[in-house]
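Sequence, please.
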């Protein structure tokens, strides 16, 4: 990565902690069938020296029910994250999302450092706090700000969610109305019909 030091451009190497492993559905199914998915991911982590592993499975939009246990074990023991992509276009979208997330890491770390400097959050002490008066004015803005604390949630996304679920209790009721299958889907926020 090019950096500026002493008014000249220098090249520095930085170790990347994030790694994307792309598997086709056939290879993934074989590893699950042979009970070797977790050990395979341990080998990948050892080779790459990465700390965060995302596994993209190309060829299906969700796992089969008999694959859930293997995925859960792999996630627990390797701290990996699985995404299923049906088509190459879905994989390209995932790659774009991951690239953006990795690019935003330095900014988010600076933001986290900024907030860690303030051990307590008082209304007038931190300019980023939302003031809520006794009449409830400011609750809507606070609800929006709560969503933006999640990784990859921008203001537009927070506004869309808050428009659909104007209060925490509305979101909770929609979640309670979800079926068990809908709750199981990783990354799904609320029910599609909610």
């Amino acid at each position: 990565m090019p950096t500026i030091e002493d008014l000249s451009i220098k090249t520095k190497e930085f170790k990347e902690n994030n790694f994307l492993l792309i598997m086709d559905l056939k290879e993934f199914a074989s590893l699950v069938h042979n009970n070797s998915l977790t050990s395979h991911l341990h080998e990948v982590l050892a080779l790459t020296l990465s700390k965060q592993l995302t596994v993209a499975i190309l060829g299906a939009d969700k796992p089969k029910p008999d694959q859930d246990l293997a995925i859960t074990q792999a996630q627990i023991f390797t701290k990996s994250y699985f995404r299923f992509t049906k088509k190459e276009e879905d994989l390209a979208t995932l790659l774009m999302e991951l690239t953006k997330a990795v690019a935003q890491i330095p900014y988010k770390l600076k933001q986290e450092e900024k907030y860690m400097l303030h051990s307590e959050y008082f209304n007038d002490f931190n300019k980023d706090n939302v003031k809520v008066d006794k009449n409830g004015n400011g609750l809507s803005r606070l609800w929006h700000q709560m969503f933006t604390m999640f990784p990859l949630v921008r203001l537009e996304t927070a506004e869309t969610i808050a428009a659909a679920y104007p209060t925490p209790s509305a979101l909770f009721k929609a979640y309670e109305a979800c079926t068990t299958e809908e709750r199981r889907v990783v990354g799904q926020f609320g029910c599609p019909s909610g």
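The radius of gyration is 21 Å.
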